[in-house]
Fold each of these.
Amino acid sequence: MKLIDNSGGIWTNLITRRINPDLVIKRAIIPNEKLVKEMANEAISSIKGSIKHRFKIGRVNGELIFNKFPSGTYEYGILKRKSPDGEDWEELNPLTLKHREFKFKEGKIDQVRGKSFILRETSKHILNGLKIKKIRRKFSGGQTIEIGWDSKNEEIVRLQNDGGSVFDEWFDTFKSSFIPSRPFRGFQKQLRENFRNILEQIRK
């Protein structure tokens, strides 16, 4: 009986050569820079609560190939006003909404965010500021990717995610106010299941 390994060498390394499984998986995934970037973008989409994609993984002549297809949206995230664990965010204070209207009339914000966007006037800082920050290539041929926010947005991100006091302009004066925690950092269950499915396809 002859066994044929169609996994591009993954099963051979696992069974015959008995190489550490984590190392085998890393070697299988990491050299494919495009896939790693797409997985990072998928993580970003999950944090935003945006489009979810289904990944189809295959191999041609031992080389990893993939396609992705939209398959709905992530259940939790910034746009869904839910934490990565599925907890609803605290609603906006009615005075905050009046303050937004005041700032808009005074020309101090460029557009009205309204009730649908609970993180105040922060879409350009939090929602659109989340991106791939760094790609570190290793001598071994792999790379690691870091997602997050630039330092100029990090304080805004920390305040909105963790909550805390802020001294800010309030109508025609300045005052100290407390912002409740509205967590959005972290990976929700749907993303973890998506990545698990990708790894299972790679191991086949």
Amino acid sequence: MSRTCALVAILLGGGLAGELALHLFEPRLALSWSYAHLGRHPALPALACVLVVACLALVPRAWCSRPSREPLRPVRSSRVVALGLAGWVGVAVLGLLYPVRPISIDPVAFLGAIDKNAVDNGRWHLLLWTLGHLAEVFRPLVRTPVFLRILNAGFATVALVALAGCARRLARSRGEAVAITALAWSAFGVCQLAIGYLDIYPSVLAFATVYMWLGLAVLGGGFHPVWAFVVGAIAPFWYIGLALLAPSLIVIAAGVLRRAGGTRRLAGAAGAALAVAGLATIPRFGRPFAWGAFVKAAAAASDWGDRPNWARGPLLPWHYVLTGTHLRELAHTFLLIDGVGVLLAAGAGLWLVCADPEGRRAPAFHFLLALAATYLAYVVVMDPVFGAFGDWDLFSYGAAFTSLVGGYAFIRWGRACPRPFAVVLALALATAGVHLLARLNALDVELTRHMAESPDHIR
């Protein structure tokens, strides 16, 4: 094993062990909301230890097995649909039995907007219009909260299927596909949104993951770029934060232009995207291409007005961005949403850039890197009005970006460094699993203490 492989293995293993230690020992730090509360039930610490031992014993053996090394085979669309429908039922039942308890007023406001069928928030333009009309159709049959949890289970299932599809696009073998999928599915920002979450973010996650799958398919030469461009164009009208997808369209465009007939295909994709983005303003504004009115409505919905010692608009003031308080909040935000994925993206990603010329030149890596970098900038400057803890779900869907870029870089490292890879993979899955034991459906535990650790920005 080379020195570089050993160094990366030590760094990743040490980082993952540190995350495990936070969960198992639960030190009382200035901010603790990202890793507590494994001790909320007497059985959870023991279960966490069993999970770690089981992963370390079973994952390396499974990774080295013959089925894991087999190449990927095509999957029939009918099978994907059947498994997706079955998954929707399972996720919906789980969410109805164990719904997430809200920690902010957002779910109440969301439910009220849907009940009134009120298209009055520019940030959720098409989302409110679509869900409001659907809820009106089904209201005689089912209460709105139940309907929305079932619908969100469908969105979450789409996201899970799309993430598995992305993993297949990035992998060479069945084992690699399973590993990337497991890392993505176990990210807290993905998993928590799938369990009875009553807010907009499961649908946002679905949009983001479907777009990623389409983008990887286009770059792999399997799809016409029109599909990725259309989803990327309409996504911000569904939820304004999905404007984060726009920079990655440049990577797709560059990949398309390198192929024969790329200019013609790209022109067709851009024209279709422009048309769809124009039609998207009709539901609220009554006319196409009302982009100016849309931007004004979105800006008005994002402006909380004058706040003492704070800023107007949706962004944090620079005097706060550059403080140690904000840096600590960022660290805990990333640890909560996808600590494992962020660590793998940083550690294995640095190795990929420095030591894997083929990997760093891959269009898929550029695409995922564009998404992850834009998301990082968004988390740094966006104002979580209810505090970093209270507004954690504002950044939740970014777990799809961090887990995939981290999983891809990690798999690339594993191809070059196979000896330590299986053990580090086992530790990564164990860490993600323990994190879910500690935080899944537990954000309301000791809510007062954690809200005090990360106060809101309204007052």
Amino acid sequence: MSFVARLAFLPLLVVLGAAGPSERVLKHPGGGPALVVPAGSPVHFKGFDEDGGARFSGRFVLRGTFVYHCEVECEPGIKVADLSFGIMPDTELAKRLPHWEDRGDGLIIDVSPIEALRGKIAPRKQIDELLAGKRADIRGHISVVVDDYSAGYGCDYSPYYSARFISVVEPPQMAQNEAEPNFGCA
């Protein structure tokens, strides 16, 4: 091939090289929604566990809006063990996290163990108000290091995402909470 012909192919090679790896779509072993692992994901797919949950390796900074609240059995007098902590990743990170096909919008990652988060995500006064039923939740923006990311879904194919807390990168920026407490079903 002549030098001029090689130069003509150079832009095509640059475009193909810039495309990089593409997302992977993995069929779920039990049927249902497929798992989408976006290109540039901060975690690596390890496999499906015996319950069909997708497991991943790799640490990453999870930055986003958090909510610390009670989800079940939330009558006044709840205990810290009744609380859950979830983070809705910032948009750019959410686009890179593995998710179930057609179920990646509104991704919320349950972060645990709660005990490791104690004293790091909210002032004691706010937690006391939450436990006493004087506030519905505690919200804000936070950056934490997590690992052990996983994705699962329920019998109705409702998605579930979780990760294990390692450390706080940036302390929480608390949001105002104007909502009234909600005890029980609407």
Amino acid sequence: MANLLEMAELAHRAIFSETREKPYVSIEEFISTAKIQYAAAMWIYRNEQRATDGMFEMPSDLLSETTLDVKNNEIDISKLDYLASLPNAEWLQSIGGVNCHCKYYKTTLNLSKILCNDDSMPEGDKPFLVVGKKIKFPKGAHAEKVDIIYANTGEDLDAGTIQVNDYVASKVMDKLYQLYGKPATQDVTNNNNPNQ
């Protein structure tokens, strides 16, 4: 498992090691770019897994569990650091926890309108949809607090790290080199001319 922040620092040093002037890209900008590329690489990784395996299972090291308050049939998720680059709110893996007394199923705004008066679902089943930074429950939730399992961004704020799998890490490194240039050539002749 690679550390995204260490990778970004390593790539920054490799690209700008021969520069005597101040690098045109600061380390902070470089790390921001690495985070964006990480989100894009996770999206590509997800699509490749679906294409080869027919499905995508969220890596367990990205899963977090939390309990959030339900107010006015919605949950505020603005404070969650979730992997928003995944399509169709796939970052939201489970509502209600693993032993929930009722089943939650994901819907969309259009489906929710179409099925507004549908009473064919069992009483305990509850639809939900993600709208902006809220999870909405058109038919209410089963409790005032609900457990959710979601895909985080891999960031451990206490440790200052973002752990990424090696495949995704290699894609991020390749993209950083593509955007900012290859690592400086090492001067093996010791004559201050790396091209000879």
